[in-house]
Amino acid sequence: MKAAVLEQLEQMVVKEVERPSVDGDSILMKVEAVGICGSDIRIFRHGNNRVTLPQVLGHESAGRIVELGQNVTKFKIGDRISLGADVPCGECIFCEAGIGNNCQINYAMGYQFAGSFAEYVLLNKTMVNYGPIHKIPDHISYEEGALAEPLACVLNALELSNIKLGDSVVVIGAGPIGCMIIEVAKLMGATKVILVQRSRPRLEMAKQFGAHAYICSSEENAIERVLEETGGLGADVVITSNPSPEAQVDAIYMAKNRARVNFFGGLPKGKSMVTLDTNIIHYKELFVHGAHGSLPAHHQKAIDLIGSGVIDMKRYISHRYPLDEINQAISAAEDHVGMRIIVQP
User: Fold this and answer.
1) Alpha-carbon dihedral sign for residues 339, 205, 238, 143
2) Are 144 and 177 found together in one domain?
3) The total number of structural domains that make up the chain
4) Domain Enoyl reductase (ER) spans what residues (predicted)?
5) pLDDT tens figures, 299-326
6) Of 67-71, 147-151, 206-210, 267-271, which gets the smallest average pLDDT?
7) How many CB atoms lie within 10 A of CB 54?
8) Burial (CB count within 10 angstroms: exposed 0-12, middle 13-18, buried 19+), residue 318
9) pLDDT tens digits, residue range 246-289?
10) Same domain, 141 and 261
11) What is the chain's alpha carbon radius of gyration, rounded to the nearest angstrom?
12) How far apart, in whole angstroms, are the C-alpha atoms of residue 243 and residue 241?
């Protein structure tokens, strides 16, 4: 089969590799669509301690089952399925508590397990038994199904931030994830969502997702504008959905007393040491937290939201590339030329 293999940092090669073999407990999926995530780009550029090269990346995917082992009873050949990324081990204290995205082994597709930048991907016993594999309705395209994975991460993040009816929410970063946050925050009851973005073209692109106020931080003081939009008090929830250390610094100044501040966007290697004025956290009694990945339950909820039409995932897909053009696809994603970039193996 054909696969895009990251052989060393910044060197991804499309080549023929052996098609995975199915054992009694595994599934082979023909990959029909896979999105490019910011974490794929970080691994491509900087690596990850959970990724041993050479490896096939790609964790936002959907396809159809073409083979499965005799012990697999939840699925059948021909099922259209979507995959999430985080795979609970199913045995540790965190997995037993139902928070498998905090599993200390932290298995994930495209990390320890070969991912979906390939014609086929193997879903092993751990993934089949504990991981996020869910059927998608016939009226959902594979592309839409693939993007259940990032939407699941958004659901996890906003549950952790405990968005309530009437909350004001600031989203810093107008990429696909930030725009999903806008939509889900409103569904959860936020009555004012403020979007902050440095790039004017990106901000204009994001206006289709229905925030209540838009701030271009390269043209005006975003902190002052957020305070103006919130009666001088700050927002109930502030979420950073970008890889900028400066956004994390600004977030605590945008927050209302007792607000929830969510550092959702991961930072690049070498830039994760951020200086914060902890007196502001102290005196405002802020709740500062992170959010990482999602649970299988979030992935199912994401598919339900897409399937019901509540979230129109087609709006998030801007570019499509064949697997042979994976390096061009990564460059396009890195240059923020559109919304989500889809690779079609």
Assistant:
1) negative
2) no
3) 2
4) 7-343
5) 999 999 999 999 999 999 999 999 999 9
6) 267-271
7) 15
8) middle
9) 999 999 999 999 999 999 999 888 899 999 999 999 999 999 99
10) no
11) 20
12) 7
Question: Which of 271, 290, 309 lies at the terminal end of a domain, its last residue?
Answer: 290
- 55/78 same-domain check: yes
Burial status of residue 310 (CB atoms within 10 A of its CB: 0-12, 13-18, 19 or more): exposed
Query: Strand pairing partners for 107?
Result: 87
d(CA 72, CA 240): 40
- What is the arithmetic mean of pLDDT over 200-227? 97
Residues 285 and 308 in one domain: no
Which H/E stretch holds residue 281? Answer: helix 278-284
Quote the tokens at residue 283. Answer: 């005196």
| pLDDT score of 337 | 86
**Rounded to 5°, angle at Cα 112 from 290 and 71:** 110
Query: Which pLDDT does position 279 carry in this prediction?
Result: 97
CB of 281 closer than 8 Å to CB of 256: no
Domain that holds residue 238: 162-290
| Nearest CA among 198, 146, 215, 153 for reference residue 180 | 153
Domain boundary among 290, 310, 325: 290
The residue to which tokens 């909350």 are assigned: 167
pLDDT of residue 268: 84
Distance, in Å, from the CA atom of 79 to the CA atom of 99, rounded to the nearest integer, reads: 27
Taking residues 135-164, report their average pLDDT. 98
Q: Do you find a cis peptide bond into 54, omega within 30 degrees of 0?
A: yes
Closest CA to 202 of 169, 170, 235, 179: 179
Residue 121: count of CB within 10 angstroms of its CB:
29
